[in-house]
Write a structure and sequence with these properties.
Elements lengths: L1 H7 L4 H16 L3 H14 L4 H22 L6 E5 L2 E5 H31 L4 H35 L16 E6 L5 E5 H9 L1
Antiparallel strand pairs: 1-2, 2-3, 3-4
Helix pairs in contact: 2-3, 2-4, 3-4, 4-5, 5-6
Bound molecules: zinc ion.
Amino acid sequence: MENAFNVLLKCTPEEKKHFVERAMQEAQNSNFPTALEIVTNGLDAHPASEGLLFLKAYFGYKVADTMSNELSSYPRIIEPIGNGGLMIDGAMTAQMLNRFQDIVNTLSEAEEAINELLQVNPKSKEVAEFKGYIDQKRQHLDQESESIRATFNKSPQLAGNFCMGCQRTISYDTQKVVFRRSADSRLEAWHLGCFQSTAKN
Ligand SMILES: [Zn+2]
């Protein structure tokens, strides 16, 4: 990466002085969103700058990478809670899916920048390689969020919209919901509170 970095960082002294150096300083403090903002502003003034295009893609990738690392420190959205129940935190799931979407959007912008760079450097191995990194990360995130989304969307269809305990409606994308297999192996849904008070009795 270090090598590719130097190859791809083609800038005029002016671009370097006004944007690149400032952005790199932010990046050194792991402040990638600000670094990204600086080079994006730079591109408004110098739209054809290859160095700034590369940095936009690079910092975009770093922003997305940081965001996806933060996702792994989220509380678990699906958790076994005993008595055969599996708890899904609906609000957290919805929030997580939004977060996935933010990351994918950030990567798409990085990809636009790298595509522009590839048009001017169709034979550059470094550019192609970097585009590969971004593509791979985006595919991975797409798959991960798709599988959460599928589970999330399928559950109400399988378990219905009513709580087995209080018989009231369940709001899957805001409430904590417990799923459990009944004795005849149908999928039941409960409000977390209703499930817990039944389990106690
Ligand atoms: Zn209930």
